[in-house]
Design a protein that fits this description.
The complex is a heterodimer. Chain A has helices at about 20-30, 40-50, 65-75, 90-100, 115-130, 145-155, 165-170, 175-185, 190-210, 215-220, 225-235, 240-250; strands at about 10, 30-35, 55, 85, 105-110. By secondary structure, chain A is of the alpha/beta class. Chain A folds into three domains: about 10-135, Rossmann fold, CATH 3.40.50; about 145-190, Homeodomain-like (Arc Repressor Mutant, subunit A); about 190-260, Homeodomain-like (Arc Repressor Mutant, subunit A, Orthogonal Bundle). In chain A, helix 9 (about 190-210) crosses helix 11. By secondary structure, chain B is of the alpha+beta class. In chain B, the strands form seven sheets. A six-stranded antiparallel sheet of chain B has the order 3-2-5-10-7-8. Chain B is rod-shaped and about 175 Å long. Residues about 1-15, about 20-35 and about 800-820 of chain B have low confidence and may be disordered. Classes of the chains: A alpha/beta, B alpha+beta. The interface of A and B includes residues 164, 178, 232 and 240 of A.
């Protein structure tokens, strides 16, 4: 309706039958509709089709909607596509989770079709205004890379209170087994070692950029106590966090960069 | 008491004065009048009558018979203290041919009431008065002494009556007849001498007070004040005040006289208390004497209002008590030898006058007279005592000063000797330290080269394509070793060990000890030594410690033991006993049968850069034991050096370490480097700690294994029944079915299934278990990924080979330090 090209909507839902009314309305408007019935399929189709907008259910078999959303955000081909959650899962924490995962809206399935369409149109319009380069040209990113990115982002964001590995894997839509294998293959390291390294990296950044004490930093990056943090830091860098900070202030070392500070 | 003390020296002083005044009579003689010799003594023509009531009149007196009148004698002219009135009947005769005028002197100036009755032609009496009891203008002449002018008619006899009464003062009569001029001259001379003495006394008193104040000698001040009061008292007695200062003011004179007397007693009492050191006796003595002093002071201040007679009686009574008390005190102190020669001397001096008076009374001598016209005569003894005290006190002060100086000098001498010894000691120590340091450079050179050589060697072999060793690991270990050595040196040069902070974190004790032992084993083997580890079974699996520093300590001790022993035995023993709740006391001992350390050198070896005299060519910086000592101190332990039973040396220490939970350990920092392909192999991981399960599963999954996790033996058995498993990796201690129970069950049901024990503690077969029951392999936590993977691969039948094919570029993006 805004341009020659009618909008292309990808719907990822395991029970599309329940969406008869909105689908009818969309088709009536001349929109193109594609459908995927589980998360993995949805991800693949999104990569492939590069739709204008994705309608995503939360409760999906296998990988849930949040994991799909997380993955969509990592892939260069799909990261700019607006995602709307369309679901019956209306618990406040689920809505919050959805919106913080990068979805542009969170709409209940009970919503009148006209309103849903209106919302979709607003987001299409918004997306058009932020005129992105045609993402269809970007080469597709391998699945494993997308998963790795999603996992590392999740780990980095939740370093302070990291969930068990199984939960992390689930939240990026893979099994624990697979995630470990991906880390091994892509990074040549174990998840534990990567997490440790990430903790130290963030800890070091906090040491340099903030005035938080060592205990607070240890907590912020998920170490069990200042002693553990200091020990790991000393093992990794050859001196203690407090010493690092002193040297930093004295200008003996440079805070930036990932080279060994010595 | 002061009075008696003063007058004790009287006779001697009279001699002195006689010399001084010797010229006076001679001069007087030259100018005397025709009819009277200068100071003609009238004793021979004088008769004395006592009038106890003091009511007689001249007429009545004259009518008294000869029996009442006693001829004047030395004794009768000095009745002493008396309340009576005394009459003197003096018969004068002028044998010359013309009348002559003369002065009749009744006695010394202290007589208060002297009346003269001169017969008149008409049979009446010419009545004249003198003395302080009478107004000055009633006196015939304003001179201090009671003198009366009289005219002796030519060739006639005449009788003159003198009535003298002076209660409260000592009476002495010296009837003398003086030519007018001679008397004047004698009086002037007397005043001159008195003035000189008075001035001298004042000066002495000032000296006394000043020196007493400066040298903190209260005794001197007391005596000076006493002498001052007494001097004034005597001056007042001799009418200097009444005649010259406040002419005719009898009341003031009387009051001041008594005031000065009481003050004399007061200050004198203070003085004697100090001399006799009353304060060292029982408190009662001090209190009694203080009470007496207070009474003196009250009498002094109240002398204006108390009736003179009562006042006199009171003060004399109190004085008697005071004298008595002081005599007793003196006796006590002499007996206890608490006082020196001075107080008895003073006492003897004080007793001299009463003794002489007594001797005079019984007629032993007639030397004693009381015609002390001269004020000086009574004051000088006080002055003499003051001078004596002054000298003795100054001498004492000087002596004290000299003693103090000497003590100071001795102390300085001692201090200097001590300092000299200290300098000698420090110089020796410094020389030792310098020698140690100069030897250091050579050794450091060698020590730093050794790891470099190993690295070069490894690199060459690696380049040549050798695969039997993990060369990057070898190189890394050597580099790390060298870096630690450099760190040690730097830390030491910066004095950082002193302010080193310990970083304590929970860790696996067994794994740590075995790792240390493994390293030590290699080092021991280099010199053909065997390393024997004796780790107690009951060591706790997890403790909180600064493991890096602890490793430094142990590596140093073990390294030393290995270094100084050849083809011998090194024993590494660790035991634990419970300390406070939540803590254990870790007892560590490293013993060898090597060359040992001479007893004398033990203390020195703990100094930096010091090495044993028998260390010879052995490598080492000499920093080791110094670092160990300081680190242990930091951790709250003490290094003990002992003789080993086998003749070598033994180092031991104890540390209190908190026990922790396995959960508190931070795990999984190591990146595996081996290449293991676990594809198609299923490994069951059994551990009650989620973190440990995840860690192992994460590691295994990465290498293609399929890892299954179980939280205890029962779950594991359940999984085993459902899945086809190639290997079980289990923890030892778990709730529910533990590692051994699981092993027994596996052996029973799946006899060919290998079981790997991966535990915080070495395998400890439970009581009652079959002795044949054993794990296929055992590994200690913490995770050493390479060793673990190799072991697992071997047991699970997976293929393993050298390094992985992970391209370095990829790795460096995440972990540059480990590769570059």
């Amino acid at each position: 309706m805004t341009g020659a090209q009618p909008p292309h909507i990808l719907v990822i839902d395991d029970e599309p039958d329940a969406l008869g009314a909105p689908f009818a309305a969309m088709r009536a408007s001349g929109w193109r509709l594609s459908l995927a019935t589980d998360g993995a399929q949805g991800c693949r189709r999104a990569e492939l089709l590069a739709p204008d907008l994705i309608l995503l259910d939360v409760r999906l078999p296998g990988m849930d909607g949040f994991a799909v959303c997380r993955r969509l955000r990592e892939s260069p081909r799909t990261c700019a596509i607006p995602v709307l959650f369309l679901t019956i899962a209306g618990a406040p924490e689920e809505r919050l989770e959805g919106l913080t995962q990068g979805a542009v809206d969170y709409v209940m399935k009970s919503c009148p079709p006209a309103e849903l369409l209106a919302r979709i149109q607003i987001h299409l319009e918004l997306a058009r205004r932020h005129a992105k380069p045609a993402h269809g040209d970007t080469p597709a990113m391998p699945d494993t890379e997308v998963i790795l990115r999603a996992a590392t982002r999740l780990i980095s964001e939740e370093l302070a209170a990291l969930p068990p590995l199984a939960v992390i894997a689930e939240r990026v839509g893979v099994t624990e087994n697979r995630l470990s294998a991906i880390f091994r293959r892509q990074l040549g390291t174990t998840m534990f070692a990567w997490i440790r390294e990430e903790r130290l990296r963030q800890g070091r950044r906090l040491l340099a950029d903030t005035t938080l004490d060592v205990q607070a930093i240890a907590n912020a990056v998920g170490f069990r106590g200042a002693g553990n943090f200091s020990t790991a830091f000393r093992e990794r860098h050859g001196f203690t966090p407090s010493r690092y900070r002193e040297e930093l202030r004295a200008g003996h070392v440079v805070a930036e960069g990932h080279d060994d500070v010595r | 008491m002061m009075t008696s003390a003063e007058q004790a020296a009287h006779p001697m002083l009279r001699l002195l004065l006689a010399v001084v005044l010797g010229l006076l009579p001679l001069l007087a003689q030259a100018t005397m009048s025709d009819c009277v010799a200068a100071g003609r003594d009238l004793s021979a023509v004088t008769q004395v009558l006592e009038d106890p009531g003091g009511t007689l009149t001249p007429d009545v007196v004259l009518r008294r018979t000869g029996a009442d009148w006693r001829p004047a004698s030395v004794r009768s002219l000095q009745p002493g203290y008396s309340a009576s009135a005394w009459w003197l009947r003096i018969r004068l005769r002028n044998p010359g041919h013309e009348a002559c005028a003369a002065w009749l002197l009744a006695g010394p100036a202290q007589l208060r009431d002297v009346q003269a009755f001169l017969p008149r032609q008409d049979g009446g009496w010419t009545h004249m008065v003198a003395g302080a009891d009478h107004p000055l203008n009633a006196w015939p002449a304003p001179v201090r002494q009671p003198v009366f002018p009289l005219t002796l008619e030519a060739a006639t006899d005449s009788v003159v009556l003198l009535r003298i009464s002076s209660p409260g003062r000592r009476l002495a009569f010296t009837p003398q007849l003086w030519a007018e001029h001679a008397f004047e001259r004698a009086r002037i001379f007397e005043s001159l001498v008195d003035g000189a003495v008075f001035g001298a006394m004042l000066l002495l008193v000032c000296f006394g007070v000043a020196l007493g104040g400066v040298f903190r000698r209260p005794r001197l001040v007391y005596l000076a004040l006493a002498v001052l009061a007494y001097t004034f008292y005597v001056g007042l007695l001799y009418n200097y005040g009444y005649v010259h200062l406040w002419p005719g003011n009898g009341a003031l004179n009387d009051w001041l006289t008594r005031f000065m007397m009481a003050m004399t007693f007061f200050a004198g009492n203070l003085y004697f208390c100090d001399v006799l050191r009353v304060s060292r006796l029982h408190r009662a003595w001090s209190l009694a004497l203080a009470a007496i002093r207070s009474a003196f002071l009250l009498l002094a201040l109240g002398s204006q209002w108390i009736e003179p007679g009562l006042w006199q009686a009171t003060i004399h009574r109190i004085d008697s008590v005071a004298v008595l008390l002081l005599l007793v005190v003196l006796a006590i102190q002499l007996r206890q030898r608490a006082v020196g020669w001075f107080p008895p001397t003073l006492l003897a001096l004080g007793l001299l006058e009463p003794a002489m008076r007594a001797a005079y009374r019984v007629g032993l001598h007639t030397f004693y007279t009381a015609d002390n016209h001269l004020f000086s005569v009574t004051v000088l003894p006080g002055g003499v005592i003051l001078i004596a005290t002054l000298i003795s006190q100054m001498a004492k002060a000087r002596r004290n000063e000299l003693n103090a100086k000497e003590a100071l000098e001795r102390q300085r001498e001692t201090e200097r000797t001590r300092l000299e010894e200290l300098v000698g000691l420090r110089t020796t120590q410094l020389q030792q330290a310098l020698r140690a340091r100069s030897g250091l450079l050579a050794r450091i050179g060698h020590d730093l080269r050794a790891p470099l050589a190993a690295m070069l060697d490894s690199a060459r072999q690696w380049q040549a394509g050798a695969v039997e060793k993990n060369f990057p690991r070898v190189i890394e270990r050597n580099a790390r070793h060298q870096m630690e050595m450099i760190d040690e040196l730097v830390e030491f040069s910066r004095d950082e060990l002193a302010e080193l902070e310990l970083i304590e974190a929970p860790g696996y004790l067994h794994g740590f000890l075995h790792e240390v032992a493994e390293q030590a084993h290699l080092e021991a083997a280099r010199r053909g030594n065997t390393l024997e580890c004796r780790f107690a079974e009951d060591l706790p699996p997890v403790v909180v410690a600064d493991f890096r520093r602890l490793r430094q300590v142990l590596a140093n001790l073990l390294g030393n033991a290995a270094k100084f022993t050849r083809d011998g035995r090194v024993v590494f023993a660790v035991q634990a006993r419970p300390a406070t709740p939540g803590q254990i006391c870790l007892a560590v001992a490293v013993e060898d049968n090597g060359m040992g350390i001479p007893q004398a050198e033990r203390g020195r070896l703990l100094q930096p850069f010091a090495r044993g005299s028998n260390a010879g060519s052995h490598e080492g910086s000499g920093l080791g034991l110094a670092i160990v000592t300081q680190l242990l101190q930091l951790m709250g332990g003490t290094l003990r050096m002992e003789d080993a039973s086998g003749g070598g040396s033994r180092f031991a220490f104890e540390l209190a370490l908190p026990i922790a939970d396995e959960e508190a350990i931070e795990t999984g920092g190591e990146v595996p480097t081996v290449a293991v392909d676990g594809a198609g192999r299923t490994v069951l991981v059994v551990d009650d700690q989620l973190q440990n399960r995840e860690l192992l599963c994460d590691l295994l999954d990465g290498f293609g294994f399929v890892a299954l996790a179980a939280a205890d033996g029962h779950v594991a058995l359940h999984l085993l029944r459902e899945r086809n498993v190639d290997l079980v990796v289990t923890d030892q201690c778990m709730d529910g079915l533990d590692g051994w129970g699981l092993l027994a069950a596996v052996r029973a049901q799946w006899p060919r299934l290998p079981v790997l024990l991966y535990s915080a503690a070495p395998p400890r077969r439970p009581e009652g278990a079959e002795s044949a029951l054993a794990f296929d392999a055992c590994l200690l936590k913490p995770l050493q990924p390479d060793a673990l993977l190799s072991q697992i691969a071997e047991l699970a039948g997976a293929s393993a080979s050298g390094l992985t094919g992970v391209e370095p570029a990829r790795l460096s993006r995440w972990d540059p330090a480990r590769v570059s």
